[in-house]
Amino acid sequence: MREDIIRDRKEKREKLQKLGINPYxxxxxxxxxxxxxxxxxxxxxxxxxxxxxxxxxxxxxxxxGIVFLDVEDESGRMQAVAxxxxxxNFKKIVPNLDGGDFVAVGGKLFTTKRGEKSVEVKKxxxxxxxxxxxxxxxxxxxxxxxxxxxxxxxxxMNPEVRRLFTRKAKFWATIRRELAAAGxxxxxxxxxxxxxxxxxxxxxxxxxxxLDDDFYLRISLEIALKKLMVGGWEKIFExxxxxxxxxxxxxxxxDYTQMEFYLAYTNYEELMELVERMYKKVIKxxxxxxxxxxxxxxxxWGKKWPKVDYxxxxxxxxxxxxxxxxxxxxxxxxxxxxxxVERAAGKGRxxxxxxxxxxxxxxxxxxxxxxxxxxxxxxxKRRPEELKQVERFQVIAHGTELGKGFSEANDPVDQRERLxxxxxxxxxxxxxxxxxxxxxxxxxxxxxxPTAGFGMSERxxxxxxxxxxxxxxxxPLMKKKV
Length: 482
Known about the structure:
Radius of gyration: 29 Å
Number of domains: 2
Strand order of the largest sheet: 6-10-11-18-17-16-15-14
Distance between the termini: 23 Å
Number of helices: 15
Shape: elongated
Number of strands: 18
């Protein structure tokens, strides 16, 4: 049946061309959007001048020599009434018109007997002849595979999806505006790197033909931005795509947008105050509320976020004291929990796996999770009071991580030792362990001021929107069709 419809539409396209009608003209006359017409309807009626609107035909009803068109643009939908006696090109275009085509209609405004604000069409122009029929309605796109692969159809049939992405645009615009107002300079660094760093993740590899060498898609913004701090910048941020060759689930994508900012002459304690203020403002402006629902519970982002010590909650939930625990003890605990921990995984990776299983899901209200073990954050500064911990915090809510910041390690000797340990883990088979980056260490040896840095991704938006993260990006990567 679909093939018959497509064939019929192709035949109409040919008929239009034979009649001298270009089904895809390059120029369009449009004086108003639908929303503008509706907002100024009475004034435009009194003015008496014709208006031209353009959009997709979402409804087509024929009654003898009269045709009612529902014309939809991005701003809304409006009825246009064409008459065989008074509309130019009526007999050429209307018989070959289908729902889904794009048209421009021009004429004076009037109100029908039923009170419908409408355009009395004097001029009808076909702008695009669609060759495929639209789904009958949104419910024709219930299959997740189809919805995500043909996202344009979902957005077309379900205005709520378009509103989701409008809200997401506001989310990033608000973050950008808040950082700029705080005196940060927005920068842009390269996506291709000779050495991936700044996070524990397996990178994508690509071949650079001109340089005849392999390079990596960046897994983080961190290293390049720290080099800029060495170079004299004091308040910078970047919003850009990062790429991680890891698994797909409700919270993870392989390519996604991340924001990181760095601030000189400050530490993680001062940074926590800044982040909490920024989050509350961004969330309120984006969603219009600071109260959300998660698994049937109310989550209030407007309260003061308490600080939760990593060692304390780990002991409370797992029964293990991280100040005394050996790697062997931690590995036994992980195995007892049924966690898949690779043999090459170091102590930090095992601790993180246990925490994510036993402690993190219990943190529903927003908290600042502070002072984790040094083994799980090789780029953060050690706590002077307790060298087994680092000055790091995570924004945890809804049972997941929604941002991370720390006092940046700027002692090049200590940083080298910790990256060398990461390199040993890589040699044992840990593909996600960080790499020893000599160029980064050279930069640190020139001196980086005391700096605090923070990063968050679009996961925050997805969690607050109550959607799997794949549904909050326009075109998530899908497996190729066989």
